[in-house]
Every structure is written in structure tokens, then in C-alpha cells.
Amino acid sequence: MTSAAAANLKNPVMIEARGVEKWYPNGFQALRGVDLTVHQGEVVVIMGPSGSGKSTFIRTFNALEDFQKGSIVVDGMPLSNDVRNIDAIRREVGMVFQQFNLFPHLTVLDNLTLAPTLVRQRPKREVEKQALELLERVGIHEQARKYPGQLSGGQQQRVAIARSLCMEPRIMLFDEPTSALDPEMVQEVLEVMQELASDGITMVVVTHEVRFARKVASRVVLMADGQVVEEAPPEQFFTNPQHERSRQFLSQIA
Amino acid sequence: MTSTSATPTRPAPLHRLGRTLKSELFATPLDGVITLVLVGFLLAVGTALVRWVLFQAQWAVIQTNTTLFAVGRYPIEQQWRLWLLTVLIAAASGLSWGLLRGKGSWPRNDQLAAGILIALAVIGSWALKLELPIQCRWWAITGVLLLVRWASGRWGHTLPATLLKLVPLIWPVLYLVGMVLISGGLGLMRVPPGEWGGLLLTLLEASFAILLCFPLGILLALGRRSELPLLRWGSVLYIEFIRGAPLITLLFLGQNILGFLLPGGLAPDRVWRAAWVLTFFAAAYVAEAVRSGLVALPPGQLEAARSLGLPMHQALIHVVLPQALRVALPATVGQFITLLQDTTLLSLIGLLDLLGTARAVMANPEFLGKNAEVYLVLAVLFWCCCAALGLGSRALETRLNPLAPSKA
Q1: Which is more confident, A75 or B5?
Q2: What is the pLDDT of residues B86-112, one digit of tens each?
Q3: Are A217 and A224 in contact, with CB atoms under 8 Å apart?
Q4: Rounded CA separation B219/B217 (Å)
Q5: Which residues from chain A sit within 8 angstroms of residue B304, using beta carbons?
Q6: What per-residue confidence (pLDDT) applies to A5?
Q7: Are B391 and B112 in contact (CB under 8 A)?
Q8: Spatial CB neighbours of B388, under 8 Å, sequence gap ≥ 6
Q9: What's the pLDDT at B263?
Q10: Contact at 8 Å (CB) between A167 and A188?
Q11: Residue B401: pLDDT over 80
């Protein structure tokens, strides 16, 4: 595990965030100079108490949130206010949301094919074939013609993952993907994510699932009050945390 | 519970009806008294109305002026053009529904609409005591329209579903064809707007405004939620200014000011000036209806679309608007119905729409004191038009709801 993680560090850098600071219009500072480097093939898990800025932080990677200071480079493209640049980055970065955010007026299959046909302008037939394969991979291909409202939460989240994968992204962001799920559905989503990780896709995951972090993460990052408190391999983070704030957080979620 | 109807005990349904009546209308002695009083009242009013319509009312005012009420002073030898247009509209609506409804039986709302049309042809021609040949012509026309609609519906039903995309195109094209048929040109004799009147003018003004205020309203609603301050404040200013002024003021303003503002010849005809004022007026209200749909949409929908790499306009067209418009549909159609009724204000600026024609007819010494007859016919005509809009929109609502596609 550790040797694999170390090998990843030699891979090219996929996300490089330096000194990111963000203020909300009401003056509240959500991010206070956050640094993070993610290499290709790494699975970085970000943990932290609510309000610590972890969701805000990963949402800056695909410009769903803006920031006022610092710099972020995604897959070699610096994030700027240029709209074309932002769209180019979003094509390479998939995102899975806490609330799934499937399009309720489209069938499951159309949810998957919408972006590839419109944005990548690939032929519909070819995209549908790929979409059905992806749905099979996440275990719901027999629901392809149904509408999202007819599926369970866990199924919806797996569709959301497949929808992002259909754009063939180089990076996947997960924003608390299991927090809105009933307990018995958490596992099926985590299994899909674990399989993705073993396929070597670069992932940044905001989650509270300790077991997932222990098993899958290359690194765990603890954020609190808009700052990175500790960054360590999972074994070290969970068994021997270096900072008082980390110990406090771990005792709260244990 | 559902098995009661299947069991061989025949009198069950009747028995159940009796029980329902008892529990709904005669549950307590007081309920019974209220029921009896109300039923008596309704019966009295109903019989009085029927007796008046059949025996007391003098329908000569309608019989003599049928054409005037229908099309105003539209030249009689050119009226085939309007009939052709009516048939085309029936065909287009049949085709649209045939394509829209996909699989399934004849929608109930459509049955209702057909029923109203038949009732109007039969009861209307009978109650108005039209002469037999004219009665026959009414029935024949109704029959032809229903037949055309049914046939095009069947045909649309068999067409491949990919043609569904053409539905929003059918209507603007039909509108252009209709304009040529009505006003002439392309080899047809010109009929200037001054000669359009009655129901024709009312429907023309209303459909023009409905067709144009809808896209305009969507743009205004999007503008009001835009992040660009100029666009946002422009939209807010426009919407609030229009909503703050009574329509009649704007109509008078339109008639008077457009003539000053635009150099001679460029200012549209009085009929079109009024149509544009109606359009701009309704757009402000439609914008607010659409905005309610936009507000109701969770922000995650736009975020998800954008994070998949869709540029803003595609995210709006494929994700945001289809959902927002479905929410806004009932309020929007309510606005359309109001708009249709607002066209009666045109009579106040001197146009001969349905109400304007009616006022002109009632001012004729020959028909003095026949207001009740005229207003009753007007009310029925307006009710039919609004009912058609309402039924159509509710069917569309059910059809657009992906989780209940079969109930339309």
C-alpha cells in the first residue's frame, strides 16, 4: 500500500492548489490559504468537521466556487475567469454530488448520454453503447429506461457516478457522496468507488467514511476552519495522528 | 375493495351511489336542509335560464349578424381562406397530439374537447333556432373538423417518435401560413387589417401575443436572474414598469405614442400596434411565471449540468428550462387565458374585436335592448376558447411529467 502510494507521487501532477483563499460576499473567510497536490492515480480523501471548508475547496477545482487569492492548476490548465478555460477543465473533471443531482426529466440512459453527445459531439449510438456498459459496471443496466425518481438513493448515486464517467474524465471529485443515503445503501456506492480507485483513476473524495479512507485512500487530508491541519497516509493518520485537532476530530467520529 | 365490482351482486354500484349520496349530501339533518335548499335554488335558476334561452330570447340579433361576430367585415367571397385555415389548425392540433401522446388511449381531455365542440354545434344551432340549411352547415363543419383532427391524430400516432422534435415547429409555421391566408399576398387578394373583426380579430390578437410573449417572457425571466447587472436591472425595470401600469393605459399609449415615435409608414397599423402592446404586456407576467419555475429548481441541477462541461446555453436549454417551464406551465397558461380575455379591452380603443362588434351591433337601433342575448353568446364563446386552453395545458402537464406519462 505505502509503496504504491509512493509510486503515485512520481506520477504527473493532476491538481495543484497553492494558497487558495476564499471569502463569501458576507465577509466570512471559508478558505484560509489551502495547499494540495494530487498526483495521477492518487485517491485523496478529505475529512473534517462540517463548516471546515472541505466541500468549498473541492468545488473550486471545477470552478463551481470562485476564490480570491492563490492559484489552482488542473491537468496543466490554470483556473482563470476565462469561460472557455473553465469549460475545458470541467470536461476533464467529473463531479459526484451529495444530492446526486440527476436530471429528473430525462431517463437514466439520457442522463448519461446528454453531455457526451452535446459537449464532445460523439455519435448518439456509440455513446449509448458506452453508457450501457458503464451502467452494467455500476450494476444498474436493467434500469436504463427508467427515470431517476423511480430508483433508490443508492441506485441514483451509482447512476450519477456513471454519468460522470461517461464523459471519460481524468479526475473524479466526490462531494460527500454517501451522506444523503440511507445506511444500507452506503456500501453499494462505496464499492463502486473502490473499484474505480483500483482502476487507477485520480480521485478526490470528501467523506466521513473511515473504513473507505483506510482501505482506499493514498493520503488523508484533515481540514478545519478553512485550513489543512494534517496530511498523512491513512494508516498513520488513523493510528498516530500528529496534531491535537486531528485527535479531537477522530475521537468525535469514532 | 376493487373486487366489489367484479362480484356477481348486480345492484352493488347503485347501492354504493346511494350510500355516497347519503354520506356526502345528507349526513346530518342540517346537511339535508342545506342540500335541498341549494338544489331547489339551482333548479329554479337553471329552468329559468333554459326557458329564457328557448322561449323568451329573440335570437334574430345573432342570426342576422353571425358573420359579423365571426369575422367582422372580412369579404365574403374570401372567407374560404379562413375555413381552410380552421381545417389546417384542426389537422395541426391532431398531429401534435398524435405525436405527443405516444402510446395510450384517446386522452380524456381530448374527449371532453370533442364533446364540447359537438354540444356547441348541436345545442347552439338548435337553441339559436337557426334555419335548417344553416344548421346542417354547422353540423357538417363540425363533423369535418373532428374528422380531420381524428385522422391527423391517427396519422401522427403512427409516425416515428423522432419527429416529436418538429412539434414546436409546426405552430409558428402554421401561424405564418395563417397570416398569409388571412391578410393575403403571394397571389391571394389583400384584406387589410381594418376589415378583420369579431372572433377572428380576437383570436388573432390573442394568438399573436401568446406566441410571442412566451419566448420574450423566458428571456426576461432569465435576464432577471442573470449575473450581468445591466441585463438584470434592465429586466427588473421592464417587468416592474409593465406590471405597474394598467393594460388599458398601455393600449392607449401604444395607439398614440407609436405614431409619434416612429417615422410615418414605419408605425404598424392600429391592429398590429394593439397586438404588440398585448405581447409586451403579457411578457412581463409570463416572465414572473417562468421565474417561479426557475426559483423552484434546485441549484444542484445547473451545477451538475455545468460540471459535466455543458456551456451555459446548453445547460439552460437541456436541463434548466425543460424542468422550470413544466413547473411554470399552469401559471403561464393562466396568463394566456387572462390575455385572451384582456383582448376585450381592444373594443375601448375602437377596434372591432368580439366585444367591439357586439357593442356596435347593440348600438344598432334595430337590435336595441338585445344585450342579454349578445352577452350570453359572447360568454359561451369566450368560455369555449378558455376551456380549450385549460384542457390542452392540463393534458400537456401530465404528458410532460415523466413519472405519470399515461394519465393524459
Answers
A1: A75
A2: 888 888 888 887 777 655 566 677 778
A3: no
A4: 5
A5: 95, 97, 101-103, 160
A6: 55
A7: yes
A8: B113, B116
A9: 65
A10: no
A11: no
In a domain, B82, yes or no: yes
In DSSP notation, B207-243 reads HHHHHHHHHHHHHHHHHHT-SSHHHHHHHHHHHHHHH
Is the CB of B307 less than 8 angstroms away from the CB of A62? Answer: yes
Residue B388 CA to residue B273 CA, distance in Å, equals: 27
Average pLDDT, stretch A127-138?
93
Given CB atoms, is A183 within the 8 Å cutoff of chain B?
A: no
Q: What does the DSSP 8-state code read for residue B189?
A: P
Q: Which of B227, B308, B396 to mutate to test the interface with A (most CBs of A within 10 A)?
A: B308
pLDDT at B392 over 50: yes
Q: Please say if the pLDDT value at position B1 is more than 50.
A: no
Q: Which residues of A touch B164 (CB under 8 A)?
A: none
A106 interaction partners in chain B (CB closer than 8 Å): 402
B51 CB contacts (<8 Å, ≥6 apart)? Answer: none
Structural domain count of chain B: 1
Domain limits, chain A: 2-100+170-253
Question: Going by CATH, does the domain composed of A2-100+170-253 fall within 3.40.50.300?
Answer: yes
- Name residue B185's beta-bridge partners: B188
The Cα–Cα gap between B326 and A252 comes to 45
| Residues in chain A within 8 Å Cβ distance of B227 | none
How many helices (H) does chain B have, and how many strands (E)?
A: 17, 0
B147 is a domain residue: yes
Residue B346 lies in a domain: yes
Q: What is the CATH number of the domain that holds B239?
A: 1.10.3720.10
Q: Does B325 touch chain A (CB under 8 A)?
A: no
Alpha-carbon torsion A7, A10, A15, A18, what sign? Answer: positive
CB contact under 8 A, B314 and A119: yes
C-alpha grid cell, residue B191: 384584406
Q: What is the mean pLDDT of chain B?
A: 84
| CB-based contact A230:A242 (threshold 8 Å) | yes
Asked if B323 has any chain A CB less than 8 Å from its own CB, the reply is yes
Query: Does any CB of chain A come closer than 8 Å to the CB of residue B398?
Result: no
**Contact (CB<8Å) B310/A93:** no
Interface A-B, measured as beta-carbon pairs within 8 A, has a size of 68
- Exposed, middle or buried, B383 (CB in 10 Å: 0-12/13-18/19+)? exposed
In which band, very low, low, confident or very high, does the pLDDT at A4 lie, cut at 50, 70 and 90? low
Range of the domain at B388: 74-400
B28: in domain: no
Question: Residues A154-167: pLDDT tens digits?
Answer: 999 999 999 999 99
Non-local CB neighbours of A156 within 8 Å, separated by 6+ positions: A100, A102, A148
